[in-house]
Amino acid sequence: YAMLLSLIFLIVLVAAIVGFVFRHEIKTNFESNLNLALRDYNVTADRHSQAVDTIQRTLHCCGVQNYSDWERTEYFSQRGIPRSCCKDQNDCSEDDLKDPNKAKLKVFVDGCFFLVTSTMESKMSVVAGISFGIACFQLIGIILSCCLSRYITNNQYEMV
Fold first, then answer.
1. Which of helix, strand or coil describes residue 45?
2. What residue ranges do the domains of the chain occupy?
3. What stretch or stretches form a coiled coil here (predicted)?
């Protein structure tokens, strides 16, 4: 049991270290995937398009760096900026969303990449605290299981 807990503890420790060391690559990968999702955004509402809409609605953002990122997409040439960028859904017309100057007043201007990464970084202290607490319980479990094993082994020889 102690060896199993030790193995789990080591796996979690390695995962945490790898996540910390490669955090910049994770950010870069997220940014490139968000750019791809914007480029491939379509009206058929596939899961990538739904994810972009959810991020934009939830975090009150638009595009990767800012709302003008949509101007470089095929979707913009057809329909303008998506409605998920609108500050007020009732005050966003399709004509407003096709004109970048009018859209600036109607949509969220901040980009989603900065908001997502800053939200993740602000929550990392909570995740680290919970992980540290779990690790402490695992270490206590390892120590107690070693003590129990030693106690059982010692008592086995004294019973003669």
1. coil
2. 1-158
3. none
